[in-house]
Amino acid sequence: MSEFLNSIGYMSWVLPALLAIPMAGAALIWLTPTPRRRGLVPGADEVMSGLANGPRWLAFIVLLVEFIVSVGLWWTFDPGVVQWQAPFDIPWIPSWGVRFTLGIDGIALMMILLTTSIMVLSVLGSWTGVRTRTHGYYSLMLIMTSGMLGVFMALDLFLFYVMWEVMLVPMYFIIGIWGGERRIYASVKFFIYTMVGSLLMLVAIVYLGLAGADPRTGIPNFSYDQILATVRVTPTAALWLFGAFFLAFAVKVPMFPFHTWLPDAHVEAPTAGSVVLAGIMLKLGTFGFIRLAVPLFPEAAMREDVRAVILGLAVIGIIYGALVSLVQPDFKKLVAYSSVSHLGFVMLGIFALTVESVQGALLVMINHGISTGALFFLVGMIYERRHTRMIEAYGGIARTVPLFATLLTVVSLSSIGVPGTNGFVGEFLVLVGSFKTRPVLAVISGTAVIFAAAYLLWAIQRILFNPLDKPENKHIPDLNRRELALMVPLIAGIVWLGVYPAPVLRRMEGAATRFVQQVETRAFRGFAER
Amino acid sequence: MQSLDLSVPLQLTIALGPDLLLMVGAMILLLWAAWRPDSAAHQRRVATASIVLTVLTGAAVWWYLLRGYTAAPGPIAIDNFRWMADLVILTGTVFAIALARDDNDRQGIGVAESHVLILLASSGMMLLAAARDLMIVFLAVELMSIAAYALAGLNRRSVRSAEGALKYFLLGAFSSAFLLYGIALVYGATGTTNLAFIAERMVAGSEGATALMLGGSAGTAALMLAGIAFLLVGFGFKVATVPFHMWAPDVYDGAPSAITAYMAATVKAAAFAAFLRVWLEAFPAAYGAWHAALVALAVATMIVGNVVGLAQRNLKRLLAYSSIGHAGYLLVAVAPASLQGASAMLFYLFIYTLATFGAFAVIIAMTRPGRQTVMVDELSGLWAVRPWLAVGMTVLMLALLGFPVFGGGGFFAKWYVLQAALQSPNPQVGLAVALVLTTVVSAGYYLYVIMVIFMRAPSADAEPLPPTPALTRVVLATAVVGILVLGVYPNWLHRVAAKGLPRVEDASIVHIGNAPIRRSR
After folding, report:
1. pLDDT tens for residues B322-362?
2. Closest-CA distance of chain A to residue B422, Å
3. Do A235 and A271 meet the contact criterion of CB atoms below 8 Å apart?
4. Residues near A305 by beta carbon (within 8 Å), at least 6 away in sequence
């Protein structure tokens, strides 16, 4: 496979192609018949009138192509190579020292594959859920795909920032136009929260770029590699710069106490919006920590006090997210808060800074994308049938929708982290890894697995297994073929990563080890110098 | 490359070529405009002729730019900064006349002279961008302002327009007095009104001296300090910085929309060009003295403009407060007193001109005949009614917000200002942080506009919008396309702006300690 791909020069064009394909698709969508051209009222139900067919099929095909193009990376990626792979580098704004530099390592590889696969499924998940203004919806989904992929690929800090912001606007519209009742509040909150963090990051990026400026010409330099290799700032400056990056990423993760946008955004977003938010966007925050915040300022990030605060917040997030999930009457909100808990594990793994814990953190990122994405899909499916997300409105529906019940149980087990599912491997690695450096925190976090079992099992008991006492629950249609087709890959991922995660781990191992060593040596040297 | 001797009248005339072309042309047009009775057709003809004249002037400026004239220090600057500022001003002028032509038609204002007034104001602005002598600065400010007072009250049937115009006139006169008094004090301290000579006198014999680096006694230093303070207040009024901004929202709201855009973008651009030149050329030696005041002004302007903007429900007032916020961002480019700041400011002003005129083009398209203003709620569901206007407005709002890609060049404008602010040797980290934090605040009202456009249903009882006039469409399309193109490929504009530096003859700006000092011969 990889010989064939290399023979067509796959690695030299794949990354820019992955950015370009969705953009082109977003433009093409507007060529399909629109309500305006048909002389219909904009805002009418386009699934009924058939107008939605053009956009949704086109988006599906484009994203399927995108996935097929991206999946080649799985074979051509060489885990033994230290350098960035599939590099692409052209000047963009030479007089500002801005380049269009792309490249991936093992971590980015897995994130890209996660993104392209979840996006295909998201289109399927919106098939009948999004009924109005479908042209706008699907083109925004496509633009967002490019933005998110760009963040994972960017090796120029300026480009990273641009991509970081590009994905924000589509999500704002997706929540604000196609969301639930409090969609406007949720979308504005989401936008403003994210923007506070990212603009301070912008100042930090400008500062770094100028610190690495060419002394002769004064042209700034935003290349990630060069900044990492050459720019050295004073410990105080490093602390402030780290703070700026920290805020940007901590809001996105989200870490306690920056998480308050998350329940609103996740609950109000349309199904696919929630899936993308939970499945991919939250990972951009943790990815930012691994790619930028920690490696650039290891001395600041690994200062005992800073590290203690971040680890403390991570553990608070783990426990707090789990406890709040326990009392949610709204199933979607329950899943949303469980994200806070899961992402806490990722932060714990990153800042515990052992190879196992970092690998575990990376695996949790992927697992959470699959499991929580699947949970949101399932919530969306049942919501489309019953138009309520309240747990108490259901009860005993395992008898009316057996397929749905089976899938929900499997996915919940994986989210809890039952051995044999993907959730187990990641959280186990995080706990084992962080036990080495932070035994107390690891033990406290371990209890969250029990909470997770409590809130999810209790919820599915109330939804699926209690007596079937409400008449409106007696005639819910079970999952259709489209919905099954969309769930099967997710279930396959859950089982595969639970039983045989080695191929994934092997591809990420090099990057994780490098991350830990790099940070350890630089943080250590930083302390020695002072 | 030809050097002009500005003491020779003929050569001075050559140096003022484009300015004179516009002035003389405006006089001729004024006669023609007054020759015939007011009518809609006559108004349109004069507008077209005015646009042609402005474009010709722009071509002349371009020609001068390419010729690369130079001159010894004198009352008039001949440098790229002037030509670039002229181009920004003339771009705004074309947009303003085009919009005014459509707006006058729709609102039934048949005053052909309005276009000539715009031309006269613009010629004052061009002079302002060229001025290297405080007396010329004053002359140019007055030429610009008096035309602008008349423009603000153009709609004679409207009480609000009259109120705004009177306010503008009174406060403008007040600020001119500050300006003039400041000039007098500076003259008293240094014995000259020429910017280069002021700088020289301030530095002369002051190597290693304290505080103000003034050669003279403590009394002279106090005079100088007071003079700078008065000038700061005077310019503060002209560019509408907090706390000298009170007139802006009322004037912007009362004036016809095209004139509001012209005042918000072009008048501001010209005033900022002069502001920066005076500060960069005359007062760098007193950096330590004025810097704190300027920072305070900038921070107050950014905070008040953006926070009060959040409370606005009238689109024109919203943009008025947004333009106050933008004055704060532009002050961030003035604060480091660096050449980078000058380039960043020109870049910013160009993008800001595009975005502001674009947004006001939308307002004009949305204003129903006989109405003067547009409430934000009137944009409800615009996406369903007029998708192109909706998309255009969204791009422009995001550009004013400074958002990358979707807001196009707006992001690069902010980026350039940030970069200029953080560049050594005077990094303004505090200002940079204030800039981005207030930008977040401004997201509140820009997003509100976007939210209303896309996320509200169109109101059922609204009377249908009249079709968008042709020139308004052209202005809107130019602004939006320009901003989007510059958002992906800003190289060209950056190359041009980077060359737009005030030329500092036979002296170079050097930096001693924390303050940039002009070293004299």
Report:
1. 999 999 999 999 888 888 888 899 999 999 999 999 999 99
2. 7
3. no
4. none
